[in-house]
Amino acid sequence: MARKIVLVHGYSAESAAETDAAIQEIYNRLPDLIQDLTGAEVIDVDYSRWISLDDGVTLDDVSRAMQQELEQFHPHLLETPFDIVAHSTGGPVVRNWIRRYYPEGGCPAERILYLAPAMWGSGLAHIGKTLIARFIKALAGKEPGKKVLNALELGSSWTIQMQLEFDAMVKRLGRSKMPMEFVLIGSQPPDLYYLSPIRYPREEGSDGTVRASGANPNFIHLKIHHKFDESTTDPEELHRKADMGFDSDPTPPVILPLDLPDDYDPVTARSHLVRKVPFAIVPNMWHSGFFNIARGDNPACDQLMISALNCTRTEYGSKYSEFAQATNQTRRGVRNAQRHWFYVFKKVWRQDQHTPYCQLIFRIFDQHAQPHRKYSIYFQPIASTGDDVTIGDLFRDSHGNKANDNTITFYLRLKEWKTERTGWTDHLGNLKGAVLEIDAREAGSRLETSSKS
User: Fold this and answer.
1) CA–CA gap between residue 211 and residue 334 (Å, rounded)
2) Distances from the Cα of 427 to the Cαs of 211, 309, 387, 389, 391, in angstroms?
3) 415 and 280 co-located in one domain
């Protein structure tokens, strides 16, 4: 019996009908490519037959629609192992499907290959909720899917909670009882995107829709809370506790490690210590490019797809290194790339497109674990000479989540392209440290508290 590979599509990729031809319009050449590479039977899942994209639909609804599609049209898949290839929003949909329907293990998916998954959302999500976007959708007789876009907005509480719960499942059940996951993404948007007045389609370190760092399921979660007696109400005492500083110890892998005083309690969860999900940036690829690739057009991508979809349990532990080397090879391939001109007024450096970035997300809660919306975050550089890298050199974007206004996402450039001879300069590695200060106050109150690191 031929192995089975299920394709799961992303946001708003719906067919107008339930015919094979209509579903083929969603995936384009991707099914043929996968079949050529693996010899497997490729099954196109179209969960829009169960659910249409409107403002009342949530990503939980979409995951449930995926389960309904499998139960009614492909029940045999749930009885034997199969593989999944998921694109874009299909990434969080599949992870949520596992979390919702297989919390104790037993997921029939053996391997999952994510192509440009929006694991931590997309900068375009909040753009999709604007009046202009709603008007364009209305012309087509559709709604933009407000609740789905809320979950896909940068810093979404739904997304963060889903990832934390999925990570907890891995720790509780163990690697062997979870599907083997792999991630591929490009970092080279089409040249036309650089004419966009919106920054996100032309953003460095992204594929024009999803940031490479936003597709990476490997993350560090650090929770810090104050351990003072809740009965303490003396303002001077509260200020004294809040102003107690702590020094940073630049020991990897934590980005800003903390040495906390006794009245602070850190709780850390580092997913990459549980298992590292193989993650690679492939050359000459943008967000929808995976739908249009044909065998031979992108051999580096083809080879990684074969490696992922043919991986065994005993090989999985070595795949993280293999995929990391592929990312390094992609960056080596653009070191000598020439400046690319778009018409006569826009230039694009291929090296900048592949510059490493990361996302730093803050969520502020009060002592009752309720979202705290009145806050400020300051990054103070440590005194340095004029040639030293400071924390301010890393920041390229910030986004306060519109639906969860206790959350903000910062976009940090970790390296900077200099010249062909010197390559990328490591800003994060040369950073001497920083002081983080978070000020929070109760609405309508003059009392303010802060914590520093």
Assistant:
1) 18
2) 19, 36, 12, 6, 9
3) no
In sequence order, the 6+-apart residues with CB closer than 8 A to the CB of 387 are: none
The torsion angles phi and psi of 295, rounded to 5 degrees, stand at -55, 130
Residue 318: inside a domain: yes
Q: Which of 123, 118, 124 is nearest to 90 (CA)?
A: 118
130 is written with which tokens? Answer: 């604007």
Dist. CA 334–CA 205, nearest whole Å:
13
Identify whether the C-beta of residue 427 lies closer than 8 Å to the C-beta of residue 393. Answer: yes
d(CA 185, CA 216): 9
Domain assignment of residue 348, yes or no: no
349 lies in a domain? no
Record the pTM.
0.85
Are both 209 and 283 inside the same structural domain?
yes
Closest CA to 382 of 373, 391, 371: 391
* Domain range enclosing 256: 228-262+355-452
- CATH number of the domain encompassing residue 148: 3.40.50.1820
In a domain, 247, yes or no: yes
Cβ contacts of residue 350 below 8 Å, gap of 6+? 188, 334, 337, 338, 340
Number of domains in the chain: 2
DSSP calls for 264-321: EEEEEEEHHHH-PPPEEEESS--TTHHHH--TTT-HHHHHHHHHHHT--HHHHHHHHH
- The whole-angstrom separation of Cα 61 and Cα 44 is 19
In tens digits, what is the pLDDT along the chain, a chain of 453 residues?
678 999 998 765 554 455 566 666 677 788 888 998 899 999 887 766 555 567 788 899 989 989 998 998 889 989 889 999 999 999 999 999 999 999 999 999 999 999 999 999 999 887 765 544 443 444 344 555 788 888 999 999 999 999 999 999 998 998 889 999 999 999 888 888 888 888 898 899 999 999 999 999 998 888 777 655 554 445 455 444 444 333 333 233 333 445 555 555 555 544 444 568 999 999 989 888 887 776 567 889 999 999 999 999 999 999 999 999 999 999 988 887 766 655 545 677 788 888 999 999 999 988 778 888 888 998 888 766 666 788 888 999 999 998 898 999 999 999 988 876 678 888 888 887 788 888 877 655 554 444 443
Residue 131 has φ and ψ, to the nearest 5°, of -60, -35
Determine contact, residues 374/441, Cβ cutoff 8 Å.
Answer: yes
- Whole-angstrom distance, CA of residue 15 vs CA of residue 221: 38
Phi/psi for 233 (5° steps) reads -125, -5
